[in-house]
Amino acid sequence: MIAIVLGSSVISAVVTFSVYVELYPSEGLDPENIFVASILINILRGPLTQIPEAITAYVRIKQSFRRMEELLECEEMAPVDTETLGDAKHGETTLLITNGTFVWDLEKTAEQLEKEKKQKDEEKEKKKQEDKKKEKDDVKNKKKEYTSDNAGSVTAEEGPDVPYVWSGPTLKNINLDIKKGELVMITGRVGSGKSSLLAAILGEINMLDGHVSRSGTIAYVPQSCWIRNASIKDNVTFSTPFDRTKFDATLKACVLDIDIQILPAGEDTEIGERGINLSGGQKARVQLARAVYTGANIFLLDDPLSAVDTHVARRLMDECVLGVLKNVTRVLVTHQVQFLTHADRIIVVDDGQIVAQGSLEDVKEHIDITALHHVTAEENEINAAESNAEDQKAADSVGEKGRGKGTLVTEEDRDKGAVGMQVYFIYFKAWGHWVHVLLLILLYIVTQTCTEGTEVWLAWWTMDVTRSIQQDECKATDVSHSCEIADPPPIKELIGSPKALWNWVYVMLAIVSVILSAIRGIYFQTRGVKASRRMVRKLVHSVLGGTMAFFDVTPSGRILNRFSADTDRLDTQLANVFENYLAITASIGGALIVVCVLLPLFTIPVVPLAILYKLTEIYFTPTARELQRLEAVSRSPMVRSVFFFFTLAFLNELVTCVLD
Length: 660
Prior knowledge:
6-stranded mixed beta sheet
């Protein structure tokens, strides 16, 4: 694209000068006008090179505005009223839902259905075009023969569109009044709506009808554990002020005190991404400890006891739920009916409705009491031994990687100093055979020769036309002995050549220059894409062939950074940078050769100018290079923390709530 745009300036110069000679043959090619016009046309090259970038930026901005528009037009959830109840005292209402009706997916309007239908039709049409193109390519390459029957079978597999049917509200007729300091346990079969009820309290689900009010702060413990890539202390405190007494009490209440003694660096032991070096029970307890450490007024616990063993669940119930949290409001979702006797109130949820609530005697008709499992002392000892073995195994995995240091994730390496030539050799080696590089160099030399040839030919043409006009003027005035006649072109055979010869040679040189520039650009981009494919393929093979230990010590953000930002630079920027660098180098070199040959004295100021530019490059390049490296290294944690973990955690929680 850039080659075509730059070539347009050459074509415009050819058209301008050719038309000028035809319209004003008597005036000829006056150097005063010709070279001024040439300079003005060359000035246009700068703005013209920005046209491809402007088009690309416009497309990106348009897509960004479209996505932002879709986001801003999404339905908004009704906020939870936190002001109505105020500061509730012990025994007063702290959480209230009145005639609540909630749904995850709102019923689609006619406009939304029409828009989705239009998008599906566009996708089908696009898929048909792609199938037809693929069919033609396969037939052309004789890879596979297709018949009209096979083409029809693809359409038949799609089948008719299923009509849209709204599934209705997720929760219906919810009336809930929870007092401060009360322990409320929510139970019910899988998929009955228990997690959705907690989402309604949090305000994370669409409310169709009713009202939700609460007072105080809330700590939420979801079913799926969310663990930061940080130390255990940082995971528990979660950027809040550290209090040693409170921290130790929290660890003891969440049965983490023994685990701290097992881990190699204690509370400073680093936890890998998603808690890879912790057992399922340890992750659940770390997450529960984070909630307990906040000191919130309301605790929403979404079945944290299911991830731990029976004896650990008993300790969590006694020391945490009934211990340090005894004076706050607790809403506990659980399937372990053996703990229901400790509840101040039991809520049974079925099919999105509260079918019963009250004491165990009041709700026993809706609970399978026979499923109550009384753990014997022998089973308790077996569970404790298995749990300790699992925790010890997880701790050993940490110790093998960072015994005594508590570190797990390695620091990202950052090169220093100049980029070695082997880096450039690796990139150009990915092009394929070395003949491609030689052919590219030859294209640059021939293209630049034609480009400079147009300027030289235009100068000779001007010299010949000016000499002819001056000779005619001298003959007309009959004072040839005192006339000043311009120098002829260096090649004697060209003196007095017809105008058509000058014009057509000039046009051919310009056209060849433009065509070669386009071929050079296409060739460079084609080889750049092939090199990018080869290097990305090696990257994929290396990552997929890595050991599990590699993924344990390498953050996902660092891997994503390689496949996103670094790959994008390899695909879209590196080839353009090399192409522009070589094009500018060839242009400067060609111009210097022409000027120095025509004006040898110009070589005198070239030497100090070259030294000045080199000193500027020595001063600027190290700073720019290190800034690029720092930016590339600092992007990995951002990708991991912002774009990956929070998004993944949100989607994971959303899917969990929908399934429940």
